Amino acid sequence: MSMNDQIIEALQAQFGEEGVYGIGESHGILQVTTAVENIVPMIHFLYAHPVFKFQFLTDLAGIHFPEAKGQELGVIYHLHSLENNVRLWIKAYAPIEAPTFPTITGLFATANWMEREAFDFYGILFEGHPNLTRILNMDEMDYHPMRKEYPLEDATRHDKIDELFGR
């Protein structure tokens, strides 16, 4: 049994099959989806597990899928077990009207800046974060620029030749 199969089995035993779904694998990286309320317990479980030891947070990224009603905003947690050289992505989604996730800064100090970046660009709120303020954009901004709510180009510009852009 592969390490990824062992991880799935352990997660489903701990959180139930309804708590761990959307299971996939890409380039050997296991990907699972869970509910927002499972994030902290699941990451703590994987961190403290005597075999898996996912004790390194590689990245935390916000995502926006405007067409997924009720699950428009999400967070992907990239975990790495250095001892086993195994990586894992945990995804969770929330509605755009209430994009609140629990902070994991209590377990990974590096999550501080990563969560601030997800807040800054996507408007994802991390409950319990010690300093959830913008990290790269100006404080005066009243929008979150990475959301897919804005056109990629300025439709008022007339100085572009469409043929040069394959249109």
Question: What are the salient characteristics of this protein?
Answer:
single chain, 167 residues, alpha/beta, Beta Polymerase, domain 2, five-stranded mixed β-sheet, two-stranded parallel sheet, 7 strands, 21% helix, globular
Describe the structure.
21% of the residues lie in helices and 26% in strands. The protein is an alpha/beta fold and 167 residues long. It has one domain: NADH:ubiquinone oxidoreductase Nqo5 subunit (Beta Polymerase, domain 2), CATH 3.30.460.80. The strands form two sheets. The protein has a five-stranded mixed β-sheet with strand order 1-2-5-4-3. A two-stranded parallel ribbon has the order 6-7. A hairpin with an 8-residue loop joins strand 3 and strand 4. The radius of gyration is 18 Å and the shape is globular. The mean pLDDT is 93.
Number of domains: 1
CATH architecture: 2-Layer Sandwich
Average pLDDT, all residues = 93
Q: How far apart are the first and last residues' alpha carbons, in Å?
A: 51 Å
- Give me the CATH superfamily: NADH:ubiquinone oxidoreductase Nqo5 subunit
How many β-strand runs? 7
Q: Can you tell me the CATH class?
A: Alpha Beta
Ranges where pLDDT stays below 50 over 5 or more residues in a row are: none
> What is the general shape?
globular
Strand order of the largest sheet: 1-2-5-4-3
What would you call the structural class?
A: alpha/beta
Q: What's the story with the biggest beta sheet?
A: 5 strands, mixed
The share of residues in extended strands comes to 25-35%
Main location: membrane
Subunit structure: NDH-1 is composed of 14 different subunits. Subunits NuoB, C, D, E, F, and G constitute the peripheral sector of the complex.
Pfam family, one: Complex1_30kDa
GO molecular function: NADH dehydrogenase (quinone) (non-electrogenic) activity; NADH dehydrogenase (ubiquinone) activity; quinone binding
